[in-house]
């Protein structure tokens, strides 16, 4: 079976996000001062071939931990869909 | 009312994603050759203050079009939640 994983990798809440802070400031200049607390992370989509959803989840977790997310500074979550 | 927007900005399908290609290659080296077609974009979370959901959506669309996404090379989608 083939699964599509949609992964979000975000900086931890405790960690300053300078890119997000800069964007929050720019919103004001665009006349969008209603927008606050911008935080920027990565969105990763990938396809994984696996026998079932449990194995697919395990593979995605492994990919996140070993390559896609730096768990010292980032957290991740993902959703799996059958394709 | 306050809304939380979760925005995904992804490179268009027609456009080569070199970062995604590199990650796809690295997956093989990690023993995760089941993982294919990696594409990398941005995930942005932000808070928006608005009278109702329609106005909030409009604000987020404006922010995406003017600042967060480059519509020549990227597409975006988002979800709004009340907080």
Q: What string, H for helix and E for strand, traces the elements of chain A in order?
A: EHEHE
- Helical stretch tally of chain A: 2
Number of strands of chain A: 3
Question: What would you report as the Rg of chain A, rounded to the nearest angstrom?
Answer: 16 Å
Fraction of residues in helix of chain A: 25-40%
Per DSSP, what share of the residues of chain A sits in E-state strands of 2 or more residues?
A: 35-45%
Q: The CATH topology of chain A, please? A: Mth169, Chain: A
The overall pLDDT of chain A, averaged over residues, is 96
Major protein interface: A-B, 35 and 35 residues
Query: Which stretches of chain A are low in confidence, meaning pLDDT under 50 for 5 or more residues running?
Result: none
- Cα(first) to Cα(last) distance of chain A is 8 Å
The first-level CATH class of chain A is given as Alpha Beta
Oligomer designation: homodimer
Gross morphology of chain A: elongated
CATH architecture of chain A: 2-Layer Sandwich
Tell me the major beta sheet of chain A: 3 strands, antiparallel
Order of adjacent strands in the largest pleated sheet of chain A:
2-1-3
Name the CATH homologous superfamily of chain A: Phosphoribosylformylglycinamidine synthase subunit PurS
Tally of structural domains of chain A: 1
